[in-house]
């Protein structure tokens, strides 16, 4: 199993984190091989096995993992006693200061985002595709860190994993019109009569505008749709698995 680590997060000994890819699981085509999502109609036993393999790799208890029923919202959920591997909350971002409680975001073109404040010992994950970026889920996560944990935005470290790039994210004119209404048309590139959307540019701009220090942002340039040998990509094939970003306080 191959995992990717963030350069800005891996220096913290009390933090476990990783971005997964397709490699190292037991799921069969078209979910091969490390699919971590139960909702994509993969064999549930294979998904369970994949979670066990990942938990063994990263040395956490599988049943302690909190993932999300993701709905392309701007909802941020603070982990509580009702949340569990068997009972994931419906939201698109999780935040906690609990130790030994891994948080997971699953994606297949959307951006997986990891957050960490080493001063306050708080972690978070977020799922941001077009909907999350347009709804500014970034603002809600940063506000949660500040309002519930007294974080300073300048102390929050952010690592954004691989996602679809503007090279592959062609959208219609109605999306361009929507970006103009939201004052984010800077994220649209027009080539001939086609429009291409740069989600990463929106997320980066939102992080900066909400007080995150530029040096604390790490952004992958890998396009999931260009690299389907390595990552699941919904745009490339709507019947596919999900890879993940994961983070845990030790």
Instruction: Give the number of domains.
Output: 1
- Main beta sheet, described? 6 strands, mixed
Return the CATH architecture: 4-Layer Sandwich
Strand content: 15-25%
Low-confidence stretches: none
Which CATH top level class fits?
A: Alpha Beta
Spatial strand sequence of the major β-sheet: 2-3-6-5-7-11
Class from secondary-structure proportions: alpha+beta
Q: Total number of helical segments?
A: 5
Helix share of residues?
10-25%
CATH superfamily: CNF1/YfiH-like putative cysteine hydrolases
CA-based gyration radius: 17 Å
What are the secondary-structure elements, in order, as H or E? EHEEEEEHHEEHEEHEE
Here the CATH topology equals CNF1/YfiH-like putative cysteine hydrolases
Q: Provide the residue-averaged pLDDT.
A: 97
The N- and C-terminal alpha carbons lie at a distance of 22 Å
Spatial shape = globular
Q: Tell how many strands the DSSP assignment holds.
A: 12
């Amino acid at each position: 199993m191959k995992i990717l680590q963030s350069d800005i997060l891996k220096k913290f000994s009390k933090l476990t984190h990783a971005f997964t890819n397709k490699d190292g699981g037991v799921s069969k085509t078209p979910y091969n091989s490390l699919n971590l999502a139960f909702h994509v109609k993969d064999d549930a036993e294979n998904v369970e096995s994949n979670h066990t393999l990942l938990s063994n790799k990263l040395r956490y208890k599988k049943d302690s993992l909190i993932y999300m029923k993701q709905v392309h919202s701007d909802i941020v959920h603070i982990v509580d006693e009702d949340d569990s591997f068997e009972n994931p909350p419906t939201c698109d971002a999780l935040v906690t200061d609990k130790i030994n409680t891994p948080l997971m975001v699953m994606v297949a073109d959307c951006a997986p985002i990891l957050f960490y404040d080493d001063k306050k010992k708080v972690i978070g994950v977020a799922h941001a595709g077009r909907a999350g970026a347009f709804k500014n889920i970034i603002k809600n996560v940063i506000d949660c860190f500040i309002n519930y944990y007294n974080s300073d935005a300048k102390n929050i470290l952010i690592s954004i994993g691989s996602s679809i790039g503007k090279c592959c994210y062609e959208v219609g004119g109605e999306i361009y019109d929507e970006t103009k209404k939201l004052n984010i048309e800077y994220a649209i590139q027009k080539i001939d009569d086609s429009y291409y959307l740069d989600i990463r540019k929106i997320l980066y701009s939102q992080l900066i505008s909400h007080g995150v220090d530029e040096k604390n942002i790490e952004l992958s340039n890998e396009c999931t749709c260009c690299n389907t040998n390595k990552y699941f990509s919904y745009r490339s094939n709507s019947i596919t698995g999900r890879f993940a970003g994961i983070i845990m306080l030790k």
